[in-house]
Design a protein that fits this description.
single chain; about 250 residues; mainly alpha; 10 helices; about 75% helix; globular
Length: about 250
């Protein structure tokens, strides 16, 4: 679908229902908790690896020349690191997490529709990675603007930003900018419902801390599952539309 098709579906679809998203999310979580845990594990490990890569030059400089950081003027490498390397690595972290979340939503679709499909690293391909890096830069920019608005902007932006990976996963024809526009269109239409269900699911997910703290790794994705159903009910899949038409024809024959 092109952007105008997606926008038209968002406009014509009924508003999302809190209870439906919550109940469906709990039921699907029972099926995808293990892939969710693996997604969190991969995300954590890759983030730690990128952070290690980010700080390796400074660690090496501190070992080789400890006096460099004791001077009043910071070393040139530190300035270069702060202005160039750190933003690039941060963009990589955001992009990797977007791609992993897209893979998780693909797994959710497979479990929900009983399909065979690719796994966690399905979207680590050139065409998706380019979109992910653009979306990562947009995310960082929007988050910065949200923080400048006394942090209140981040509360509002939390909903549309959470929708980025699901559109990345299921709307291959959309550009990165169109994914942003579609996410805001769906998010603005159903902001209160989506914020509420994400918030409540997030609180429930925190119960994983009770399980020796590491249990949070198993429950963390609970708050992300309603986003899958937000897309399914708020936009819809092509095969779902075909199934609905077939049901409508069958009922008309009766």
């Amino acid at each position: 679908m092109n952007y105008y098709d997606v926008e038209g579906k968002i406009i014509t679809k009924p508003a999302l229902d809190f209870g439906t998203l919550f109940n469906k999310g709990i039921e699907l979580f029972k099926v995808v908790w293990l892939p969710g845990f693996v997604t969190v594990l991969f995300s954590t490990l890759l983030t730690l690896l990128l952070v290690l890569v980010m700080y390796t030059p400074l660690i090496a400089l501190g070992i080789l020349n400890a006096e460099a950081f004791e001077r009043q003027d910071p070393p040139v490498i530190y300035t270069f690191f702060s202005m160039v390397i750190m933003p690039i690595i941060m963009m990589c972290i955001f992009a990797v997490n977007l791609l992993l979340m897209a893979g998780f939503y693909r797994i959710c679709r497979a479990k929900d529709a009983k399909l065979n499909t690719g796994g966690h690293f399905y979207y680590f391909k050139k065409q998706y990675m380019i979109k992910a890096f653009i979306l990562a830069s947009i995310t960082i920019g929007l988050a910065t603007l949200g923080m400048l608005a006394c942090g209140l902007g981040l509360i509002y932006l939390g909903v549309p930003l959470a929708l980025f990976p699901v559109f990345l996963a299921f709307e291959e024809e959309l550009s990165a900018v169109e994914i942003v526009k579609a996410s805001f269109a769906l998010g603005n239409k159903n902001w209160l419902v989506l914020f509420g269900v994400i918030f409540v699911m997030g609180l429930i997910a925190q119960l994983g801390v009770i399980l020796c703290v590491v249990g949070i790794l198993f429950t963390a994705m609970l708050a992300r599952i309603p986003i899958y159903y937000a897309y399914k009910d708020g936009v819809g899949f092509k095969d779902d539309d075909t199934e609905d038409r077939l049901k409508a024809l069958a009922s008309s024959d009766l």
